[in-house]
Amino acid sequence: MRFISALQSGLAVFLIAFSVARGQPRPYIGFVYPAGGQQGATFQARLGGQGLGDANAVLVSGSGVTARLAENYSRLNNEEVQLLNEQLRILRRQILSDSARSDLMKAESPAMMSESTPTSATTNATPDGALEEETVRLQMARIEKRTLEYVPAPASESLASLVIIEVTVERDAEPGEREIRLVTLRGVSNPLTFLVGQAPELCRKPMVAARQQVLGKEAQALRKRPPEEEEDRITLPCVLNGQIASGEVNRYRFEARQGQRLVITTLGRQLVPFIADAVPGWFQPVLALYDARGKEVAYDDDYRFKPDPALFYEVPKDGEYVLAIRDSLYRGREDFVYRITIGEVPFITSIFPLGGRAGVSAQPEVKGWNLEGAELTPVRTDAGAGIQMLAASRKGFLSNRAPFALDLLPEVPEQEPNNTLTTAQKVDLPIIVNGRIDHPGDWDVFQFLGKSNDTVVAEVRARRLDSPLDSVIKLTDGNGELLAFNDDHEDLGAGINTHHADSYLMARLPADGPFYVHIGDVARQGGEEYGYRLRLSAPQPDFELRVVPSSLGIRSKSSGVLTVYALRQDGFTGPIHLSLKDPPPGFSSSPVTLSSTQSVARLTIKTDRVATAEPITLSVVGSARIAGGEITHPAVAAEDRMQAFLWRHLVPAKDLRALVFDPAYEPPPKRIAHARPVIAAANATPLVTNTVSGTNSAGGTNLVVAPKFTKQQVAGRLKELRFLFDEGMLTDEFYGEKVAECEASQ
Question: Which domain, by its residues, includes 463?
Answer without folding.
Answer: 411-428+440-532
